[in-house]
Structure formats: structure tokens, C-alpha cells
Design goal:
With about 280 residues, the protein is of the alpha+beta class. It has seven helices and seven strands, in the order H-H-H-H-H-E-E-E-H-E-E-E-E-H. Strands 1-2-3-7-6-5-4 form a seven-stranded antiparallel β-sheet. It is globular and about 40 Å long.
Length: about 280
């Protein structure tokens, strides 16, 4: 073979080596891309885990001061299964630009239950007693029909009809009153709530801000029978209740604690439990 032939053979061998190298690089790059794609899949698979966290936050009851049982528990229990990455993604389920999910707060309304309390014995237990109002003296207690035509007693009980209950306590110059009206439906309770609001706004009262209790509520401040005081009106499902305090320094926080206790006792009765919440609630 002459010089020219040897040069042509060498060039052919070099070309073959180059083609093989390029083919190998192309194959390796494809495998790398496949590997990258495979590792990305688990990360995207954890994204749905943000949903239980979002549901738990939005479904949380309340925990509030009313201390209602939280329906968020099942969602909260499943959240850890999403792994550590879900904790970071939960506040913004809509992506990095999504709005954060607010944490449960005391202002979150309780469950809007449709259970009715049309038995005077239950209404009597819903109203706070001496055990719930430790340090206070009970002065007057009454349960009658909603139209106030019949007073309910052990000898003449009232069942199957809307009822009205009230109890008054005092401690020194301070007087606290609790009122409960039980209605046959949530719609009837909503209408009664509007009437209660109207009775306050028509008088020398002004609205004051305080976290929501029960299904919905509003606090008022103004002149009551024994001086300047606070009144909080609450609807809890089919029940409309109110608490007033007067006769001493105006104390919105204390009145709200009384109202939170009353709401908890209402919710306990609506759930079929014995109302026993005290002032430690809320």
C-alpha cells in the first residue's frame, strides 16, 4: 500500500472512532435525561398533599374559644404522610404566588348545627349554674315558652315548642344575665337574631368589635338597667343567646368569656352531651 492509501485508511478509522464517541454521548445524555425525569416525578407527586392541609385549615372549627370539636382532625392526621415538603407547600397551595392559608383563629365561627333544643329540661341545663359561675350568686332563673305565656316547671314541663330561658348572677355591684331562645330551625333563629340586633341598634347602643362566637355574633355597648354595660348576641345553629354585664367597669373581655361559656354549653346540648362548660372556656 502506498503512502496515499495508508492516509485514506487512517482517516476512515478516525471517522469511525468519532462516530462511535458521538453515539455514546448521545445515549448517555438520553439516560441522564431519563434519570432526571424519574427523580422529578416524586416531587410533583407530593403536591396534592397540600390539599389536606388546606382543608384542615379551612375546616377547623374553633376552636375557638367556644372550643367546638374540630372536623379538621381527619385532614390534620393525614397531613404528615405528605412528608416534610408539604409543610412548605401548605401555606400557598396555589403555588409560590398563591395567598397563604390563614391559621385557625378564635374568631372562626363554630359549627352551624341544626339540632333543636325544644325541651325545658335541656334549656335549664344550658343556662349556667352555680358550679359554672363559681364566685357568683344566682338570683333568678326561669324557663318558659317563647311567647312567655307558660312557665315551665317539673310538674308542668314544656316540650316540642320554642322556649326562652334566663338566669341572673351577681358579684358585688356587677350583674351578669344569660338569655337563651330555642327555635325550630336555623332560619327561624336567623330571623330572631335580626330582631335582637335591631333591639340594640334602636336604643342607645353602639357596636363594638370582638371575635365571632358561635355561628355569628355581635357585641354592643350602652346603657343597661344598672349602668353602662356590654351585651353580646349570638346565634349557635337553632339557638339565639345573649349575655349582658353591667354595674361595674365596662369589661368586654369578661363579657365575652361568659358568652363563650354559654355557646359551649349550647353546642354540648346540641351534640347530645350534658352541658357542663364553665368559665375556663374561651
Amino acid at each position: 500500500m502506498g503512502m496515499g492509501g495508508r492516509r485514506m485508511a487512517a482517516a476512515a478509522v478516525a471517522a469511525g472512532v468519532l462516530v462511535g464517541a458521538l453515539t455514546g454521548c448521545s445515549s448517555g445524555g438520553s439516560d441522564t435525561a431519563k434519570g432526571a425525569s424519574g427523580t422529578a416525578a416524586p416531587a410533583s407527586g407530593t403536591a396534592p398533599a397540600a390539599s389536606p392541609a388546606t382543608g384542615a385549615a379551612s375546616a377547623s372549627p374553633a376552636a375557638d374559644a367556644s372550643g367546638a370539636a374540630s372536623p379538621a382532625a381527619p385532614g390534620a392526621a393525614s397531613a404528615p404522610a405528605a412528608g416534610p415538603s408539604s409543610a412548605a407547600s401548605a401555606p400557598a397551595p396555589g403555588g409560590s404566588g398563591g395567598a397563604p392559608v390563614p391559621p385557625p383563629a378564635a374568631a372562626t365561627p363554630g359549627q352551624d348545627l341544626d339540632a333543636v333544643l325544644l325541651d325545658d329540661r335541656i334549656v335549664g341545663r344550658v343556662l349556667p349554674d352555680a358550679k359554672a359561675m363559681t364566685g357568683w350568686e344566682e338570683e333568678k332563673r326561669k324557663v318558659d315558652t317563647a311567647d312567655h305565656t307558660t312557665t315551665c316547671t317539673a310538674a308542668a314541663p314544656c316540650t316540642g315548642k320554642p322556649l326562652s330561658g334566663s338566669v341572673r348572677f351577681s358579684s358585688g355591684d356587677v350583674v351578669a344575665r344569660f338569655f337563651v331562645d330555642t327555635l325550630p330551625s336555623r332560619d327561624a333563629a336567623r330571623n330572631r337574631l335580626k330582631e335582637s340586633y335591631a333591639s340594640y341598634t334602636a336604643g342607645p347602643f353602639r357596636k363594638v368589635d370582638t371575635p365571632v362566637l358561635g355561628s355569628e355574633s355581635q357585641a354592643f355597648q350602652g346603657q343597661l338597667a344598672d349602668g353602662e354595660g356590654i351585651g353580646i348576641v349570638v346565634r349557635s345553629g337553632t339557638v339565639v343567646a345573649s349575655v349582658t354585664t353591667e354595674g361595674g367597669p365596662v369589661d368586654l373581655a369578661a363579657t365575652r368569656r361568659f358568652a363563650a361559656m354559654l355557646v359551649k354549653r349550647i353546642e354540648q346540648a346540641q351534640a347530645g352531651a350534658t352541658p357542663d362548660a364553665g368559665l375556663g372556656v374561651g
